[in-house]
Design brief:
mainly alpha; two-stranded antiparallel sheet; 18 helices; 2 strands; 1% strand
Length: 447
């Protein structure tokens, strides 16, 4: 009698396969003639690229979303963005709750990993709050955006534009429909518009700080002393990155892209261009026109990204803080990583180093390969690569010039960026290896 092999997949393996399945379904839908304005079949590689970019909430495009895709195709992209932003397990839990199905212990464990919470208890309640909070925040954002879009587009189309851009901004996707004015123009038309800039930036930041931070603020309101350590680190780091990067951006661009702008527009553009690299992908100025120093600043911001358990990508703000604390502890010859009166767990520095190592190795190898395949400027290639692996979506304009093989590399980077570079590597490891005998110690010299 044949023995049936039982497959016990880990969360990282299930998450990886789930995202891949969603991307493939989206690819097939985008290939249909009904998805394009001209009623033509979209080439597989381009549909695959678009579906990956939407599901991985990146925003890199080979076609202008408005100019090429029909309303059906745009709605497919919007659904992929929403599923990718919230995560497969969160969406699956929504249907389970609607069908009044019992959520077992294993499913709760997967949910815990999906929303990056620390405790298993209360994870279903947290998921409900995430779903309700997402609906409310996206709804409010859409309502505010329609105040600008309805007078320009009419009621039906203005409402649709408000919903599309609110979801895209909250999920840090960066897809837009502004091709109705000018292809690939993003939000440059609204660079001085306080309402559009304010709403989009707010949605990006709220989506990027993470669901755990929402829940903590919801429970304790403005009693900062009761916040979890995770929340304190995320809020302080987010504020410091935005403020510090804004000052640097203004210094670097005051004699370049900011020339001729009013004080209000200068402030809006400066803030927008340091918030959007935190994996959102919109832009209100021509990204190709920024200086080399600003390009490097943007790459650093894209690499950092948002926070754990959010719609954003990158190595995450908490990883950056752990790396900095590890550096400070090394200078002080201390083994402890201390912050806000607390000591971090012992192995967290090792995990942070693993994340940044895989992230940088993947980005450098991808950039080297693309440069070998195509004669493109090195800065533009690195910008594209970090934009992809950070699920940002900003580009110097070379996305449409990439060959099929180069696009496959960018697709892989976007996928790794969404599921997590470390998680993607762990997806190929079946189980943890236990070594019964440890090797003898011998010292080496570093630095």
């Amino acid at each position: 009698m044949p023995v049936r092999k039982k497959y016990n997949l880990s969360y990282t393996q299930i998450s990886t396969l789930s995202f891949l399945g969603i991307i493939l379904c989206g690819t097939l839908l985008l290939m249909l003639p009904i998805s394009s304005r001209e009623g033509e079949i979209t080439p597989f590689i381009n549909a695959f690229f678009t579906a990956t970019s939407a599901t991985c909430v990146t925003g890199l495009v080979v076609y202008d979303t408005y100019q090429y895709f029909s309303t059906f195709g745009q709605i497919v992209i919007l659904l992929l963005i929403q599923i990718g932003g919230l995560g497969f397990m969160t969406i699956a839990t929504l249907f389970s709750l609607m069908l009044r199905r019992k959520i077992g212990l294993k499913e709760r464990g997967f949910l815990k990993e999906s929303v990056s919470t620390i405790q298993l208890g209360g994870v279903v309640r947290l998921t409900k709050h995430i779903l309700i909070g997402t609906l409310m925040i996206e709804g409010l954002g859409a309502l505010l955006l329609t105040l600008r879009f309805i007078p320009e587009q009419g009621f039906g189309r203005g409402l649709y534009y408000g919903i599309f851009h609110a979801v895209s901004a909250f999920c840090n996707a960066g897809f837009d429909l502004m091709g109705c004015y000018e292809p690939y123009s993003s939000l440059t038309r609204y660079s001085s518009d306080f309402l559009v800039n304010g709403v989009i930036m707010s949605l990006i930041v709220i989506g990027g700080i993470g669901f755990l931070v929402w829940e903590d603020i919801y429970k304790h309101h403005f009693k900062i002393s009761k916040y979890q350590l995770h929340t304190k680190i995320v809020l302080v780091t987010t504020g410091a990155l935005i403020g510090g990067a804004a000052i640097l951006f203004y210094i670097m661009e005051r004699n370049n892209t900011l020339v001729g702008m009013s004080p209000l527009e200068t402030i809006l553009v400066t803030l927008f261009q340091v918030i959007t690299p935190r994996t959102a992908g919109f832009n209100t100025i021509d990204t190709a026109a920024i200086t080399e120093s600003t390009s490097l600043l943007t790459i650093v911001l894209m690499m950092i990204g948002g926070s754990p358990g959010s719609t954003a990508g990158g190595i995450k703000s908490t990883t950056l803080v752990v790396l900095l604390l590890s550096f400070i502890a090394s200078l002080r010859h201390s083994e402890d990583l201390n912050i806000f009166g607390r000591r971090l767990e012992h192995d967290i520095a090792q995990r942070a180093h693993g994340v940044i190592t895989i992230y940088l190795m993947g980005a450098v190898m991808a950039a080297m390969t693309i440069c070998f395949l195509q004669p493109l400027p090195l800065t533009d290639v690195f910008f594209e690569v970090f934009s992809a692996i950070g699920t940002v979506g900003m580009s110097k304009g070379i996305t449409r010039d990439l060959t099929s093989l180069s696009r496959l590399i960018i697709i892989l980077l976007m996928f790794c960026g969404r599921v997590g570079s470390l998680s993607f590597a762990l997806a190929f490891v079946s189980k943890k290896t236990y070594v019964p005998v440890r090797q003898p110690v011998e010292k080496i010299t570093i630095g």
